[in-house]
Amino acid sequence: MLSILVKNQRSRNNAPKKNVPSPAERNRIQEEGGFALLITLICSTLFMLLGLSLTFSSMTEFRTSTEYEAREKSLMIADAGFNLTQAIFRGNSLTSLLASATDVNRYLNFPVPTGTTELSYFNRNPLSPVEAMHIDYTSPPAAIGTRTINGLLTPAGGVPVGTGRYFARLTDNDDGDGDPLVDTDNVVILRVMGVHRGSTTEGTVYGTNTQNAIAIIETTLRRDTTFNFDQAFTIYGPNVNITYNGNTFDMDGRQHALNGALIAGAPKAGLGLMNNNPPNNASIAAASAFTELAGMQMDNLVGENGDFGPLPSLKDSTDAVLTSSDPDAANIFDPNWLMAFVDQLAGFADNNLPGGTYTNVVWGTTAAPEITLINGDAIIETDGTGAGLLVVKGDLDYNGAFTYTGLIFILGGEFTMSGANKTIIGGTFAANVIDNGDGTYSYGTPTVAFNGNSNFLYSAQGISLAYDLLPMRVLNWRESTRELEPY
């Protein structure tokens, strides 16, 4: 046993000894360990910052995409509001729309621009943009007052559309009359504001938790006044085959109300002739129309002094159109423009009818005028009434006791009035539009016959009743942004 213990002890004594680091080595090892820890901490911090950066970037991108989506929705709402608003113009005078007054609740003491230009832009808006951004119109707060807005085309609380609502306002352009509530040039400015309801997590502003997205579009609109004729009866053509039978017809260019009563106002021609091919050459047609008048029929054409003296009131009105300040007036000289317009009527006419015989019809009233398009030759028999715009693409035999208020167009080349008790209050246009067979049109010589008790009474109100039914033309379109108009 003793020998074994001695042997083990010798073995332990003879075993190699472990290396013990020196103090210098221990310092070096500690320095290396501290540096590694520092590197680890730096890497951890960098990875943490990278993670935070990715998180913030993701949040920013999400918020940006959400805001962009909300703005696009508000723009689509505004665009939808613009399209829906167009129906309001039909049958309404621009002055009456401009002068309409609506009391609107006021919820905020929003800032109002003080500069002349800035204020003029601000006053075109249906609402203050600041207020529109921060009011929940589905559940608005208590109002602090009201204000009156002229030309508001929507209810005070707007019109709901999808996820939001729109507001529309009509204002006058600078037409030189100095009155923002009266239109004198058939040009107006329409602003539509689309409001998309925002998220309640956007923060509290002005005492509310709403941050709506808004978009404002502005358009300049013009009413087409091509058919704003200045005579009771207008004939277009290089010449005219005209017949006056009897002495009971009247072409009265004096001003008349919608009911046919005489009213104050500058008289117009009872019968006007136009032809601009070759230019200024309606004198031939005017001479033909004058030659066919018998002496006792001269005073059946009354109104503005004509080219042949005070009576008859018959004149070549071509030059008046050429020199008119109305840019639409000369459209009537172009048969291609006229037929393109007539083709468009089919898309929005109230009565789109084939040629044929019509009896006891009612094609609109002065309270609710209509557009009636007859695609062919027509005969109107027995009693009937109508108001608005009546376009006949063929010949018209007008022999019933039919009273019409507005404008009547006969484009087939032949117009015959016969029978008794027929009255057109407004204006009548007759022409012979020839299809050239190659997609173009030209004006030929029309045939017009007046028989029996035919009354043509000029009425600016009646003519306006007709062209007020036509769609407004968009002259320009733009989006108003904070960069253009700070708010």
Give an overview in words.
The protein is of the alpha/beta class and 487 residues long. The strands form 3 sheets. The protein has a 17-stranded mixed sheet that branches. A 5-stranded antiparallel sheet has the order 3-4-5-6-24. Strands 1-2 form a two-stranded antiparallel sheet. It has 2 domains: 89-224 and 472-480, no CATH class; 231-467, no CATH class. The model is unreliable at 201-208 (pLDDT under 50). It starts with a helix and ends in a 7-residue tail after the last strand. The longest helix is centred in the first third of the chain and has 67 residues, at 23-89. The chain contains 9 helices and 24 strands.
Number of strands: 24
Taking the sheet with the most strands, its summary is: 17 strands, mixed
The coarse overall form would be elongated
Work out the helix count.
9
How many domains? The number is: 2
Return residue spans where pLDDT drops below 50 for at least 5 consecutive residues.
201-208
* Beta-strand fraction estimate: 25-35%
User: Distance between the terminal alpha carbons, to the nearest Å?
Assistant: 106 Å
Can you give the helix content as a percent range? 25-40%
Mean pLDDT comes to 85
